[in-house]
């Protein structure tokens, strides 16, 4: 991070609606707070697997019927409050459990390795397609559509699609996921602020007010003007 700026890392997976909320809020605050925001595409499935053994069943929250019911309402309320167009209905939990975002997160990782300045719009388009338009993002033709929406050239998109199956991209995604776990992440979004030489982990999109307080920045609500 630049002198005097706090490095804030956001570990996320586009399968997670709360990650989208946290992503949008941090993207808004990156120009207001004295922070360097670093987007870290990771794989939620890998975190769930790794932490499952310790937490005796770190199941996705929607697996508990009551919690699932609550989450439906919660995400709708949060979407409105955060002004992020997440749309969710009861069938979505099955849809999420049945979708692997491994390909999408590798695609985003390839972007991070090639032209990281596109990381923000590309990630956003994946969320929009999956969480706003309820469309599949696991097939390569859908990834092409997402990349087009994000304004990528067809040459670049083709290059990223080829990179998906490369060991370099697979390793990078695995390493990023392991890094999140090393910081103590057990779900997403996982936000790590490097402050006074210490990493501070915050879990969830509703802890950003607390993050501000820890790094000495003023919270101006989810949509700062």
Automatic annotation (TrEMBL):
Transmembrane segments: none annotated. Residues 8-214 form the DSBA-like thioredoxin domain. The keyword Hydrolase does not apply. The active site is at residue 16. It is an enzyme of class 2 (transferase). Keywords: Transferase. InterPro entries: DSBA-like_thioredoxin_dom, GST_Kappa/NadH, GSTK, HCCAis_GSTk, Thioredoxin-like_sf. GO terms for biological process: glutathione metabolic process. It comes from the Eukaryota. Its EC number is 2.5.1.18. One of its GO terms (cellular component) is peroxisome. The keyword Transferase applies. It catalyses: RX + glutathione = an S-substituted glutathione + a halide anion + H(+). GO terms for molecular function: glutathione peroxidase activity; glutathione transferase activity. Belongs to the GST superfamily. Kappa family. This is Glutathione S-transferase kappa 1. It comes from Rynchops niger (Black skimmer).
